[in-house]
């Protein structure tokens, strides 16, 4: 039965069942039969790249995305989005709330997807020109563009609180370059890392490495941002579940470590008659 209420998609097509138009008889992703071809023959990361890029990926591209996913899967409780999920878990909130907390905190300008978007945009602008990078990283905002996000307070892709690159991040970079194009972004980042860190006085962060990997995979800033949010959820989920079981008695409470610069003192109830 024809309808005026039709959803449109350029990458997804479904053949409806004759007996039920709301059920799919066959599904096609960029022309590939999902249940007849893709699921039987492809891996998870091949399927992801097919959906995002619209073409069958090369084997080396699927491996690079898989290794990046392993790097991002669990950044540990020091990472802000994972800690947000842990807060939800220890409070025994529902699971979707814990993951939404991780997504919200993980979307920001400090190690989040918004910072990653800026890094990928700068790759589009600067390419492999190190002097251009040094200039743009000091003023990464887009000219005359209104945005809900405040100005970033550190060079995007760098850790302003670090003195040197963490061992695990260096290991991740050295691993990923083994699966990346020889003339690509990851190899360039590995070669120029020392010069850039010396110039800015702080080490690169995970957003630098992830952004370079997404550039090597041919993904734009929006695609990279979505994948960055998705690929960090496994660690957030498991940490939330663990804290839910452990309970609040084993969870740190930071009130004694917080000092207010302008403390108004204890709250006093106003007297209704005297106004005090």
Automatic annotation (TrEMBL):
Source lineage: Bacteria, Pseudomonadati, Pseudomonadota, Gammaproteobacteria, Pseudomonadales
Organism: Marinobacter algicola DG893
Protein's recorded name: Citrate synthase-like protein
Alphabetized GO MF terms: acyltransferase activity, acyl groups converted into alkyl on transfer
